[in-house]
């Protein structure tokens, strides 16, 4: 949890100074007093020493030693020293503290997961599950560990970098960009913050709101604190602005020097270069409740915020309130409900473009700690649903929160998150809360198209093609000598093929030359630079369309459908071709061999051609006007191509009766040549059919 998460949970603890403990003589009592006062940074080492000094002489002393170790671990956990906390939890377990508090295994798992040791964490969580299977979060934690590798394997292409010019060893987090994109605001507990008090829970200095200006080259100036009346001697942070940048909402947690008096959301308006006196927004249902982490709608009239007030789903929930201009009041907060909130902590909301709700939670399956999620708004309602994990590397095994986008378009995405992941400033075992930038390069999609002859597979040069996109784009090109076209970007650098679209490649027909073809592809699921390769085959219609599997019994016009032979398959190919090209009219031509009389062969061929038409019309549903049957008998012999071993044509012959009769002594070849004459073919005779 972050600084303000801890304050929301623990605001109101008694602030006891270190000096008051100097008078205590009992080391254990001193350590426990620090713990109960919420002075976790000081109590952690004191409780560790108290445990070390307690010898196990009896059952009571064992329990006391275990309790000191457990409380020490709790303190280290609160101040995010996970390695030290893990050590103390393990010590408490060795001393059988799980008999007193089963959750020691759960917290041990949290510390292990926070250090990316998901396999060790899984073992700890399962041990806790055996002791308390009813905990609503334990299944989430176990699934988190089990899916950890999957998150890493499916990591996005984001480039993550710490903002070294803005970060310090103290806490720096919660970025907001102004409406012009020239000033970055954030929360920091660096030494330049107003006031000299130290936050009792985290041992960090009180935080303030800082800002850094961005020049034309993208350089950031040295951050400076916002002046009074925004910053005070108290804790200020986690801000939000309306779309115009006129209204600023922020969290202020007041401390009177002895007690944290709770957290509230304040609003200030920009007047010229100054800000008005902040006004507290009345949102609490009870004095012990705390509110913070504001997110504001573009018009500034709706707030989503985090609070531990009663009626929620878990530790800290997200709530919503709307502004009543007439009464100058804010509505009674409404919980966003279980569609968004969880039994865990749901914090750091950000109102994104398109009314998307970004927030962080430890109550859903993620990578560990707080994970970033985005939920979609329900139309015409102040409700959100279907939270989706933003995945790695925006998320990590550490706490990741407060995401903002400064760019999110076809040229890529940029923005900031806050995180204490490895690489942040501070000690390696306890990284600080830092600001991280991210950059997601654009998804560059190239398209390579090759147009080939359907029968030979050879490329077709100088062929016009058109690429039509669902976004309205329309590009026409001509294939090169290799039958290819490459689409990358236009002369002005605009990408031609964009992610998230559907595209059609149209190779148009040419009368007397080619029957065109179409192909479709989608870029909806493409998430990384990709070259889409498509090959489109077009049909050479200067030659008849062969239908080699259309066969008949001897002397019969009935289509042959027997085991191993299905004449309808070839006709189904023709049917598909005509459905894809609804304007063509086809002449079906049937031929016989030369055996028998010419008149009989013509009559048989005509009946066979008619059988093909009958099937396509009566069984497949093609209009009869699109089909013309013609029986040629033996009048149009086929052409025979002699091919050598290399596949080259060495001679061509018309299969006349005289030519075939030369091979009577070679029965196999004689029958093969007659078979080539017995054929059914198609010819496109019109491209002008219009459905009546």
TrEMBL record:
Cell division listed as a keyword: no
Predominant subcellular localization, coarse grouping: membrane
Domain OmpA-like: 539-688
Alphabetized UniProt keyword annotations: Cell outer membrane, Membrane, Signal
CDD domains: OmpA_C-like (cd07185), Sialidase_non-viral (cd15482)
A GO term from the CC aspect: cell outer membrane
Cellular compartment(s): Cell outer membrane
Signal sequence segment: 1-22
InterPro entries per UniProt: 6-blade_b-propeller_TolB-like, Bact_OuterMem_StrucFunc, OMP_bac, OmpA-like, OmpA-like_sf, TPR-like_helical_dom_sf, TPR_rpt, WD40
PANTHER family: LIPOPROTEIN YIAD-RELATED, STATOR ELEMENT OF FLAGELLAR MOTOR COMPLEX
Record-given protein name: OmpA-like domain-containing protein
């Amino acid at each position: 949890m972050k600084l303000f998460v801890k304050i929301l949970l623990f605001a109101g603890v008694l602030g006891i100074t270190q000096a008051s403990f100097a008078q205590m003589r009992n080391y254990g009592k001193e350590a426990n007093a620090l713990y109960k006062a919420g002075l976790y940074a000081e109590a952690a080492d004191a409780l560790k020493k108290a445990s070390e000094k307690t010898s196990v002489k009896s059952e009571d002393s064992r329990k006391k030693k275990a309790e000191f170790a457990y409380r020490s671990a709790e303190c280290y956990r609160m101040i995010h020293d996970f390695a030290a906390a893990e050590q103390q939890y393990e010590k408490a377990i060795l001393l059988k503290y799980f008999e007193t508090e089963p959750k020691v295994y759960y917290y041990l798992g949290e510390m292990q997961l926070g250090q990316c040791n998901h396999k060790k964490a899984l073992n700890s969580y399962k041990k806790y599950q055996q002791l308390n299977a009813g905990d609503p979060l334990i299944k989430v934690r176990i699934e988190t560990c089990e899916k950890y590798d999957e998150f890493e394997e499916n990591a996005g292409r984001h480039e993550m970098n710490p903002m070294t010019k803005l970060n310090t060893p103290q806490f720096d987090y919660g970025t907001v960009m102004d409406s012009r994109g020239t000033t970055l605001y954030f929360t920091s507990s660096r030494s330049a913050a107003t006031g000299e008090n130290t936050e009792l829970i985290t041992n960090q200095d009180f935080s303030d709101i800082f800002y850094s200006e961005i020049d034309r080259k993208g350089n950031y100036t040295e951050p400076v604190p916002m002046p009074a009346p925004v910053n005070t001697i108290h804790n200020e942070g986690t801000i939000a602005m309306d779309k115009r940048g006129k209204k600023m909402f922020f969290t202020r947690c007041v401390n009177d020097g002895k007690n944290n008096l709770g957290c509230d959301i304040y609003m200030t308006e920009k007047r010229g270069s100054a800000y008005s006196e902040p006004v507290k927004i009345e949102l609490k249902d009870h004095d012990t409740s705390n509110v913070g982490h504001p997110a504001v709608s573009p018009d500034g009239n709706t707030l989503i915020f985090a609070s531990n007030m009663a009626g929620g789903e878990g530790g800290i929930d997200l709530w919503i309130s709307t502004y009543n201009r007439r009464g100058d009041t804010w509505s009674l907060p409404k919980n966003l409900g279980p569609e968004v909130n969880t039994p865990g902590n749901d914090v750091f909301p950000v109102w994104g473009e398109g009314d998307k709700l970004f927030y962080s939670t430890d109550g859903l399956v993620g990578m560990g700690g707080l994970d970033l999620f985005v939920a979609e708004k329900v139309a015409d309602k102040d409700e959100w649903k279907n939270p989706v994990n933003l995945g790695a590397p925006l998320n990590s095994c550490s706490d990741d929160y407060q995401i903002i986008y400064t760019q999110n378009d076809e040229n890529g995405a940029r923005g900031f998150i806050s995180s204490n992941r490895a690489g942040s400033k501070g000690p390696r075992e306890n990284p600080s809360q830092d600001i991280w930038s991210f950059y997601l390069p654009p998804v560059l999609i190239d398209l390579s198209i090759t147009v080939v002859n359907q029968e030979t597979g050879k490329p077709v040069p100088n062929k016009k093609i058109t690429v039509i996109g669902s976004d309205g784009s329309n590009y026409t090109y001509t294939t090169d000598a290799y039958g290819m076209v490459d689409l990358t970007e236009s002369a002005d650098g605009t990408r031609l093929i964009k992610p998230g679209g559907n595209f059609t490649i149209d190779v148009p027909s040419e009368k007397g030359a080619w029957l065109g073809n179409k192909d479709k592809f989608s870029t909806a699921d493409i998430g990384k630079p990709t070259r889409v390769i498509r090959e489109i085959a077009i049909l050479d219609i200067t030659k008849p369309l062969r239908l080699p599997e259309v066969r008949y019994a001897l002397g019969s016009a009935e289509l042959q459908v027997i085991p191993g032979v299905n004449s309808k398959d070839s006709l189904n190919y023709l049917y598909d071709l005509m459905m894809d090209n609804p304007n063509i009219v086809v002449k079906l031509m049937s031929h016989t061999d030369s055996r028998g009389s010419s008149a009989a062969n013509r009559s048989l061929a005509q009946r066979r051609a008619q059988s093909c038409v009958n099937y396509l019309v009566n069984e497949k549903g093609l209009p009869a006007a699109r089909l013309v049957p013609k029986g040629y008998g033996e009048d149009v012999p086929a052409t025979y191509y002699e091919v050598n071993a290399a596949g080259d044509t060495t001679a061509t012959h018309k299969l006349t009766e005289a030519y075939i009769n030369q091979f009577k002594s070679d029965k196999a070849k004689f029958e093969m040549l007659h078979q080539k004459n017995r054929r059914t073919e198609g010819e496109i005779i019109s491209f002008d059919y219009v459905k009546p």
